[in-house]
Amino acid sequence: MRVHFRAYGSVQGVGYRWFVKDAADRAGLTGLVRNLSDGSVEGEVQGAERDVDSFLLRLRNGHPYAEVSRVAADGMPERGNESGFVIDSSRPG
After folding, report:
1. Is 50 marked active-site?
2. Which is catalytic among the residues 17, 60, 70, 91?
3. 81: how many CB neighbours lie within 10 A of its CB?
C-alpha cells in the first residue's frame, strides 16, 4: 500500500519532518517527506496497510510541539525497489 499524505496546521519549524521520518523508520516504511511553501508538510509512504494506517494516526496525534489540524491521505500506485524513508529538502508548490 502506498499513500500520499499532507499534514496541515503548525507543522513547520518544530521538527515535524524528523518526527515523520522516525515514525516511518520505526514502522519499517519507505517513502519521503518535505515542507511545502504554504506551511504544510507532504509526503509519500509505502508498506503494509496496517503499518501505514498506524503511521497516519501517529502523524495526527503524536508530535509534542506540532499543532496538526488535519492529515489528508490518498492512495497511489506502489513503487518497486524503494529503500528507506528520506527527508526531501526541496520545496515544491
Report:
1. no
2. 17
3. 5
Give, for all 93 residues of the chain, the pLDDT tens digit: 999 999 999 999 999 999 999 999 999 999 999 999 999 999 999 999 999 999 999 999 989 999 999 999 999 999 999 999 999 987 665
Alpha helices for the chain (secondary structure H): 16-27, 49-61
Residue 58 lies in domain = 2-76
pTM: 0.93
Is 6 in the active site?
no
Residue 82 within any structural domain of the chain: no
**Cell 526531501, residue?**
88
